[in-house]
Design a protein that fits this description.
Order of helices and strands: HHHEEHEEHEHHHEEHHHEE
CATH class: Alpha Beta
CATH topology: Rossmann fold
Radius of gyration: 18 Å
Number of helices: 11
Number of strands: 9
Structural class: alpha/beta
Number of domains: 1
Shape: globular
Length: 245
């Protein structure tokens, strides 16, 4: 979906830095795969450095933010990958499938070019955090249509799937939607919000921010969520799908 990230993707790498704990889980899921194609690769988050990687990304804005030593990248859509059948040991898709205009076609392409797929996604139907429950419920309403249950959705394409919960550390370095669950003040940063695609779909962000500011100021947020501040990590519905074709 290049139109979206060409407009919101500027300075993306300043806020979306791969978290090493999540990276370790992804690397483990890739198993013994020596060649990987990263689809919807963006700026290159979570691309393993210990194997051969090719990145496929449709947004020029995101491609320009890839590091000089990042994997080679081609401008290509998940809907039509320019690779032969079984060209890779594994495919990788990090927080991207929900942006694809034809998700079934894109997943079929993943299945075509490799025998293993590793997909990082979200199941909002399994959780309602303080962020979406109290301040931005429209995100949850919309994203439940974009993120179906992983077992049901990905099972329609892949023959065998494993679903691995990804608990989010309280100091997560990758600034996706729920990454700041223990740091509510972060959402007042416009750069943080620009790096989260869900905020681009909200017509009135300021109303939710005003409620959050009020609740932080008068102690309401702390009273509701004090138990969270004792946790080192939290399951917020993020899932790693490991599929075998």
């Amino acid at each position: 979906m290049p139109q979206l990230y060409d407009s919101i993707g500027e300075n993306y790498v300043d806020y979306r830095r791969p978290d090493p704990r999540i990276a370790a889980t992804i690397t483990k899921a890739l198993g013994e795969a020596r060649s990987v194609v990263n689809i919807g690769a963006g700026a290159g988050s979570y691309e393993p450095a210990d194997r051969t990687v090719i990145a496929a990304e449709p947004s020029a804005t995101m491609i320009l933010q890839r590091a000089a030593d990042a994997a080679p990248v081609i401008c290509a859509s998940a809907m039509e990958l320019p690779f032969r059948q079984n060209a890779f040991d594994a495919t990788l898709a990090i927080f991207t499938v929900h942006h694809w205009p034809d998700r079934m076609r894109g997943l079929s392409e993943m299945r075509r070019v490799a025998k293993r797929a590793v997909i990082l996604t979200w199941e909002p139907s399994t959780s309602a955090s303080w962020l979406t429950r109290d301040y931005f419920p429209e995100i949850l309403t919309y994203d439940r249509t974009l993120f179906p249950l992983a077992s049901e959705f990905y099972g329609r394409v892949f023959e065998q799937i494993e679903i691995v919960p990804i608990p989010i550390p309280r100091d997560c370095t990758d600034g996706f939607l729920e990454a700041y669950w223990s740091r509510p003040e972060a959402y007042f940063d416009a750069g943080v919000r620009r790096a989260i695609s869900a905020f681009a779909r909200i017509s009135d962000v300021e109303a939710g921010l005003a409620r959050l500011q009020r609740d932080l100021d008068d102690g309401t947020w702390a009273r509701r969520n004090a138990h969270l501040l004792e946790l080192a990590e939290l399951d917020l519905g993020y899932r790693l799908v490991i599929a075998r074709c």
